[in-house]
Each structure stands twice: as structure tokens, then as C-alpha cells.
Amino acid sequence: MSTENEVAWLFELEVKPENRQALEALVPEMVEETQKTEPGSRAYQIFSRENSISVYERYDDSDAALEHMKNFGEKFAARFMALVTPVSFTLLGSPSPELLEVVGPIGAIVHTPLGGYVK
Fold first, then answer.
1. Helix, strand, coil % (nearest 5) of the chain?
2. Confidence bin at 93 (pLDDT 50/70/90)
């Protein structure tokens, strides 16, 4: 499968200590739903360090990313965003205008391809 249309992002967030337990309970539900219902999702990983959360996501293309954002918005966004404070959103790839329209309001910083390879 070609990787030229892939998009990925790293979403950095802060979580207050009092919200940590609720976040840890929500994450497995989010991961399971994404893995089960979104075939265009290549990676959906959540990392933590103290009060910092990093969400790494990778999709086949902008359409798959938009599908994820729709599903996340419907099922998890309200609960998730109530527990965290966004810090930064870095998008990697060549997003479609439609994806840019969705991530623009959340302050996405877009890095377009310069060179490299993926195995």
C-alpha cells in the first residue's frame, strides 16, 4: 500500500491529577473503538508522562482521518476534552483541504513531506 497520502499527528495535552483516573478509564474504550471500527487507522497510541499526554495517530489518508474525527467527536470528544487541556497539535503529511478545515480551528501546525521513507 502506498504511503504518499498518509497523514499523522501528535496531539499534546495536559491532564490535571484529579482527572487522571477518569482518563485512564476512558483510553481503552477509545482505542478499542478506533481499532474495531476504523480500517483506515494505522496507529492510535496514547502516551503519558506525569501530567502530560501525547496522542499519536496515523491514517491511510485524509478521508480516514476525517472519519476518525467524526467518530471521536460523536463518541468521545466531550468526555475526553473535559479531562485535558490542549497544548499543541502537529499534523504531518499532505492533508486535504477538508481535513485542514477541521484541524485549523484547533490550532494545527502542519508539516508537509520533504523526504524519507516508511517500511
1. 40, 35, 25
2. very high
Cell of 36: 474495531
Tell me which architecture the domain covering 7-111 has in CATH: 2-Layer Sandwich (3.30)
SS3 state of residue 20: helix
Nearest Cα residue to 72 out of 106, 33, 109, 14: 33
Q: Is the pLDDT of residue 118 over 80?
A: no
pLDDT given at position 88 = 97
Beta bridge pairs of residue 69: none
CB 71 within 8 A of CB 92: no
The angle at the Cα of 116, spanning 91 to 1, to the nearest 5 degrees, equals 80
- Which one, of 93, 92, 80, lies nearest residue 53 by Cα? 80
Give the CA-trace dihedral at 26, 32, 37, 43, to 10 degrees: 100
* Per-domain boundaries in the chain: 7-111
